[in-house]
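Notes, p. 3: input format for complexes.
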Amino acid sequence: MSQIQQNALAQLLGLSADEAGAKEPETTLNLNLPLAPEPAETLPQFADYAIVGNSAAGIAAAEAIRKQDTEGTILMLSKEPYLAYGKPLISYLIEGKTDDAHLAYRDASFYERANITCAFGPECEVVALDADQHVLALANGVRVQYGKCLLAVGSTPFVPRSIKNWRNRENIHTFECLDDALAAWQDTVAATERAHAEGRKSRVIVVGGGLTGLKAAEALSHIADEAFVLTHGPRIMSKILDAQGSEQLIELLAERGVTVVTNTSVDEFLGEEGPCHEAKLTEGSTINFDVAIAAVGVRPAMGLAEQAGAEIGKGVVVDETLATTLADVYAAGDMTQVVNAFDGSKRPLALWTNAVRQGAIAGAQMAETPNAPVYGPDYAENIVDFFDISVMTCGVVNPPEGEGFQTIAYQGKDSYAMFVTKDDVLMGYVLVNHPERAGIYNALIAHHVNISELDPDMLGRAPRNLDFDAETRWNRLHESYPTALDRKGFAREVAALDAREEA
Ligand SMILES: Cc1cc2nc3c(=O)[nH]c(=O)nc-3n(C[C@H](O)[C@H](O)[C@H](O)COP(=O)(O)OP(=O)(O)OC[C@H]3O[C@@H](n4cnc5c(N)ncnc54)[C@H](O)[C@@H]3O)c2cc1C
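Output follows (503 residues plus flavin-adenine dinucleotide):
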């Protein structure tokens, strides 16, 4: 065990509970949450398009449908009572890094302008899908018939069975939606006030060192005196960081008040019901805490599709039009299975940008838009900030041994960059506090540029456009420019006009 790991564990097992708390947490959140209008008393019995899910994928689909079909009826259903909000921002909201105005992804007028009938709230949860009859059953007993249906229901938190007694405990929260974040915030504020009245520090533990767990820990560290992240493996964000990148991030988080304890998880939350303040760790010791967050992972929400008979893999199976194997049923976002562009493996790609892209394609396909885009093999591109630390990762970051991959790493004082190449093509990177020119690396990966033609030192410093020959610059990096631009980037018409004037 490294020194950092030993110190983190010693701190977790330490006697800090005897010391008085030092923080004075903000105990109010000025919220005016984007509540949805009450669902109409009578919902339509039929909708041309039924969209289940009011988030990244669902909204993108509705917008794409409206671009093509201005007449067809759209019914959007969500089990949450809010207007669409930016899920990646829920931790920033409770931390005070953003506010409710920025949290809103679309305002109330959006639904009206797009002529979308909303049915939002727990009573509008879709509890069954009958694909043969084209019918959705809602929690309130209403049945709605549809022409085409999009499932865009996201992910659900997953806690392995090996962690015992976490369910239905008042102070153990998941961190998957706005209500989860608000409940965790409220509980941590109350627990911190209680701890201080008792003359001790308050402590939050987060079980799970993935993106969600780290974001929750950052947010709650602003309220609780101590914030620990427990992760059963040796790394945090293990799917998108390599070992050294993870170590660098752990150090930077520790300097900002979040202590990560690796190779350690909770074996059992003690007691069986009611609040829980003690947990037995996998390495045998028992620790105290005030609030716990269960953020071990998420799974695609496949229940509805599975029960209706759709083909299921690591997510709901879709084709390039985002159609499921059920007639007239499409799926988009976190719940789908995506083919990895690098190794052909199939798994969900639980990222906001991917949900938006898939939703837009599904919507265009559902509305039978001429030349509608299709979805192909894909890969992850992550951009995330913890405190003031920027983390960017893309493509292959933990290459398998013996398959010809090479890695090159640059360690700075507070920064780290690592690149993975194969056959002189950049396949992936990890950038911690090293955001310069990430767009260029992305272009190199997307266009399979042969980097042996470039300055050999290019990965060691931020690459510049001039590292590429003129042809590559034009053909590969500027491909997205409209074709009406000339090589200097001027509109051809303007250039022609100038030429006439000069003549
Ligand atoms: C704390 C946190 C931080 C994150 N940070 C980032 C980040 O920094 N970058 C990033 O790219 N991604 C991030 N993500 C992931 C990102 O939020 C998801 O990839 C994205 O929200 C997926 O969009 P979606 O539309 O597929 O599903 P979701 O956003 O999960 O939306 C699902 C919708 O379906 C509704 N619903 C579910 N079941 C039913 C039902 N049975 N009936 C009716 N409605 C239902 C829900 O109410 C919701 O409206 C984060 C996620 C979390 C939880």
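Residues 52-58, 77-80, 87-88, 90-91, 125-126, 152-155, 175-176, 211-212, 215, 301, 304, 333-334, 350-353, 355, 384 surround flavin-adenine dinucleotide (CB under 6 Å).
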